[in-house]
Every structure is written in structure tokens, then in C-alpha cells.
Write a sequence for this structure.
């Protein structure tokens, strides 16, 4: 049996879907404000870990932004986002099954790295801006930036994996970082 939603809610979702399809970053923030709690709850129930659930939540909204054209206007965002959250949490669990984690019993409880605060809206916006800037790079530059900063590979390791010269890796990396610096220069500006 289909639930009836108020006309204004259906229209708000349709307007939000259209704004998402047009790449409107404000629409992503509005979507996060409306459904962030739901997405976090779905992820946290599956992962039983607040930090990993927060990471999945950020990932879900990035995926929603990237795949906005798949959302059908007039439908409810909640089930769509909950499905993305569930799939992302399953992906995390599968990755961890392949790579077992160490025991927390050997961790130093005084280590400041063990204490994390939830991300602020500004931090989430910064993460989205950086990810969008990286996705906007040329494919060969994007691959090198990801291998360098996300996977933690050195220039030599990247060159070996891609079967290209180290000098090529360095020049592509330099070009990519220059483009990223230009695209993200607004992040270093003080707020007015």
C-alpha cells in the first residue's frame, strides 16, 4: 500500500532532485540537513561504529550528488538514500572481512587519534569540494592524485604500477596539484 505524502513535500523533493541534477551544492547541503540523521542511523546500525558510520554518511551524500540523475522526481528521497547507505555499509564490512583489523586492546587509550569529533557542516562541505575538484581533473592526473594521497603510494610506486616514467608521474602530479590549488583557493580564504 502506497503512503500518501503531502503535496508540498513531494514538490520540495522534486525541486531538490532538479537542483541536484544541475550540480547545485546547496541542494546537497539541504539534502544532508533533511536526511543526514537517517543515513547515519542506517550506517551505524549495520556497522556498529560511529566513526565508520560518519564516513559512510559522507560517502552516501557524495554518491547522491554524483548519481542525482538516477533519482526519480516525485519519489521520496529517504528510501533512495537509505538504500545507498545500506550498500555503502555492506561494502565497508566486505572490505574489512578481507583485511582483518588489529585489536583495540593494544592501542594506547591516551592517543589523541582515537578520539574524533563528528564533522561539522563546514568540514563536510570542504570534503565535498576537495572530492569534486579531484573528480574534475583529467583522468590520468586524477588517478595519480588518488594513488598518491588516498592509497599512500610514492612516485616510484605509482610509476611502477602504471608502467610509466617517474618523471611523468611527477609532472602529472605537479600539474594536478596546481589545478587543485586554483580550484580550491576559496577554502583558504577567511570567512567574512
Amino acid at each position: 500500500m502506497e503512503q500518501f505524502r503531502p503535496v508540498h513535500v513531494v514538490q520540495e523533493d522534486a525541486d531538490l532532485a532538479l537542483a541536484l541534477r544541475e550540480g547545485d551544492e546547496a541542494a546537497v547541503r539541504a539534502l544532508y540537513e533533511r536526511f543526514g540523521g537517517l543515513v547515519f542511523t542506517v550506517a551505524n546500525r549495520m556497522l556498529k561504529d560511529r566513526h565508520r558510520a560518519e564516513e559512510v554518511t559522507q560517502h552516501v551524500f557524495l554518491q547522491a550528488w554524483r548519481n542525482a540523475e538516477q533519482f526519480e522526481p516525485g519519489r521520496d528521497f529517504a528510501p533512495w538514500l537509505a538504500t545507498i547507505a545500506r550498500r555503502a555499509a555492506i561494502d565497508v564490512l566486505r572490505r574489512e572481512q578481507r583485511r582483518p583489523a588489529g585489536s583495540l586492546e593494544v592501542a594506547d587509550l591516551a592517543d589523541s587519534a582515537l578520539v574524533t569529533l563528528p564533522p561539522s557542516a563546514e568540514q563536510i562541505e570542504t570534503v565535498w569540494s576537495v572530492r569534486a575538484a579531484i573528480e574534475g581533473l583529467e583522468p590520468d592526473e586524477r588517478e595519480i592524485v588518488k594513488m598518491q594521497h588516498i592509497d599512500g603510494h610514492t612516485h616510484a610506486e605509482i610509476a611502477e604500477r602504471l608502467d610509466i616514467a617517474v618523471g611523468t608521474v611527477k609532472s602529472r602530479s605537479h600539474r594536478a596539484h596546481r589545478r587543485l590549488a586554483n580550484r580550491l583557493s576559496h577554502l583558504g580564504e577567511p570567512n567574512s
The chain has a mean pLDDT of 81. Residues 121-192 form a domain with the Arc Repressor Mutant, subunit A fold (CATH 1.10.10.10). The radius of gyration is 20 Å.
